[in-house]
Amino acid sequence: MSRLKDLFKKSTNVQMSQSESVDQEVNPQVAEEAGPSVPEGLWVKCPKCGEPLYKEDVVKNNYVCPKCKGYFRIKAKTRIRMVADKGSFQEWCTELHTFNPLDYPGYEEKIAQTQEKTHLEEAIRIGEARIDGEKVVLGVCDARFLMGSMGYVVGEKITCAFERATQEQLPVILFCCSGGARMQEGMVSLMQMAKTSAAIKRHSEAGLLYIPVLTDPTTGGVTASFAMLGDIILAEPGALIGFAGPRVIAQTIGQKLPEGFQRAEFLVEHGIIDGIVHRSVLRSTLAGLVKLHNRNKGYCQFAKITLPEGEPEAEKKRKNKGNKEMTAWERVEIARDSKRPTSLDYIEAIFDEFMELHGDRAFRDDGAIVGGLAVLDGQPVTVIGVQKGRNTKDNITRNFGMPSPEGYRKALRLMKQAEKFNRPVINFIDTPGAFCGVEAEERGQGEAIARNLMEMSDLKIPVLSIVIGEGGSGGALAIGVGNEVWMMENATYSILSPEGFASILWKDSKRAKEAAEVMKITAKDLKNMGIIEQIIPEEIPACEKNLPLIAKDMKKRMRHFLMEMEGKTGEELAALRYERFRRM
Length: 584
What we know:
eight-stranded mixed sheet, 23 helices, 16% strand
């Protein structure tokens, strides 16, 4: 399958027409994080490995060290040229001037010297541009200007940019690079955090896209305001990102910091940002994301699709072959089979493109829940699934398909993002249940599931949930509040495991096979009870061999579902979902 990230790689890497220095001015507030300045001449020094490099090689490699892959900091002018279409950038807000609210000694002189040295008016350039033809508001912080720190002018430029973007219905992309709030402007600088955040809120409420790209370093008040308020937050590899810098933490409370602390990779692991993007594919990645959101102005029109009437063809074939009806326990065993296709297998087989997004923005990226942006025959959708592992190592990463609270919070974050951009949500369910460890209880497992049930009930977009394997208890229901719920023929959906049912009611877990029959947990049982709408047939139990055939059928049904939902208002979709569960 051509994933979004693979599609993005099709664009050619940007080649610079002339070499530029990437001089940096180190702010005393973040002196320890600043990389070495690049001397003029034919040779430059890598900021990471310290090796001397031929400057032309560095420039041609997008200012990335060819030896250790370390990233150089680059000028705003260079960044704009790497990302925007040639000649498309039209700068805004060039008439603003820095003032000295604290009467800080030498501040005006420092500003004047920096302006003369860098040929910049302030620490950010912002304006209108096009990226692969798509119109955006583009802002780029420049570390050479007092380490990109945010004073009044930076805050005002960003605020004005979001206000104008809201008026003109444009997405915003900001390249963040900053030591934080500017000390020389005191409380005036601090207030820019609130001002920019308020402008971003209005832009978001207008249903518009905002993508911050965090570069090295992004710290302090910038991290605690506009840098962390994006719909999709990306970062460059190895970028330092944090509120309090490592030196501040070490000197203030004497805490020992783990290796890789506050680097971009650390933030992905801890659920704070969506992902890392390399410079070689940065322009194409941004273009792809903007295009995906721009073409999502309402649902795409589909040709009329009809489903076969009567019994599914696979069921007819099974009866013709004289196959005996499987027992509920046999279906339990099939649903648990480690060779059964997973959520990612179906995503790979069904959708034209997929870009995974990470994290709950608060604690961790839970490997048991995967989700992101996908395209179904030209229609942008949000896809979420519970993911099991294929082997011991993978199962540890995926926690055997048992989500933690942060997994459910990630799923809800993506569903609310889908609602903002009017994207349908398609969920794949395959879990023995929510994780029940001490850590899950400490982080509010019950609250996380309850919050999903409540918020999903009122989503103003179509929601489809499909049980592809095990549907265990509240852990499955947490992404199962759909306008329709489907099941694979050999999937199960239950209040808890047959073993648990037998143990609680009969005090004997060995009676699990008997319990499976009593519990009515098969697709056929639940269809008869009105709990689900459709059964997706499996002529033979789902496996790698018949995955393409099943995926083709599932895709056809999804398109039919979206066509039926088309034309309904958000309030109608939420009301239909409410009435669906009200009948139960």
